[in-house]
Amino acid sequence: MKGKNLVIVSLIIAILFPLFFLNKSFIIYLLTLALIYSIGAISFNLLLGIAGQLSLGHAAFMGIGAYTSTLLVMKLNLPFLPSLIIAGIVSSLFGILIGFPSLRVTGFYLALVTMAFGIAITQIIGYLSFTGGYHGIKEIPSPEIFGLSFSSDLSKYYLSLIFLVITVILLINLINSKTGRALKSLRENEILASSLGINVSYYKILVFVISAFFAGISGSLYAHTVSYISPNDFGLGASLNFLAMIVIGGLGSVPGSILGAIFITIIPVFFARTSFSPYVFNGIMIILIMMLLPQGLIYLPNLFKKKV
After folding, report:
1. Cβ-contact 139, 151 below 8 angstroms
2. Under DSSP, is residue 54 helix (H, G, I), strand (E, B) or coil?
3. d(CA 141, CA 131)
4. Which helix (H) or strand (E) holds 211?
5. 210-260 tens-digit pLDDT
6. What is this structure's pTM?
7. CA dist., res. 299 & res. 294, Å (int)
8. Element housing 148 (H / E)
9. For residues 237 and 303, what is the distance between their CA atoms, to the nearest angstrom?
10. At how many degrees (to 10) do helices 236-249 and 254-266 cross?
11. What's the start-to-end Cα distance of the chain, in Å?
12. Segment 164-182, tens digit of pLDDT
């Protein structure tokens, strides 16, 4: 199946699939979360899979977006859509902040810096009274755009799908542009990229800004979908989940990010009534994927084609 046809078929399936579960709100809720996490996973894959910048604090950007949007709507009575956009912008400003250390450190040390950033953000949010502290914020209102309320589970699903499609279109175009090629050169060899006239510092900070922006958007959608947020939702465990999503789905692949997000969001639910930790499951899956299918689940059909 050609690329464009596959996209059309996938979109049709995404539109029609929840209609089979109209009486099962929890399934639609899970699917909505998978779409929201897909936005965050795609933005993280841009950072790691495309630009090669390892971060263990990506969920903090999502948290910043979630709290920004929530406080703007609940404290300042700002409409949802402007709040969502501002949430992305505020997250991107923090992306600039964390982007500067990437000019000095790389690899393992960058991972440590970003992990420390993520932990610091959640701790700060937990200590602030206007954020609800560690108890979080409850009864976050559902999205409302131009007088249209997205209060039902199905409407939240389609709203999240719309934002996911927008994210996919924008970031695929970015990846295939001159900027995308520059980001890929950072992943391959920063010294060589610099010798070819690519402004390494500029593109490093840029990718953190763009990645953080879309993570903030996903955070805003998350807050107004779940209706409750706390610092624990955006800690190190959440950042490791994003890492699991893109490794399992496929590093550097936008469709792989979506596949990984769906996998990590839905599969652990089957272990909910057991003592089996979802983090253990994610770890096992990462090991298996790295050993058996290092390119991720998205390349599984290609493996079957080769064998045939």
Report:
1. no
2. coil
3. 15
4. helix 200-226
5. 999 999 999 999 999 999 999 999 999 999 999 999 999 999 999 999 999
6. 0.93
7. 9
8. strand 148-149
9. 31
10. 120
11. 16
12. 999 999 999 999 999 999 9
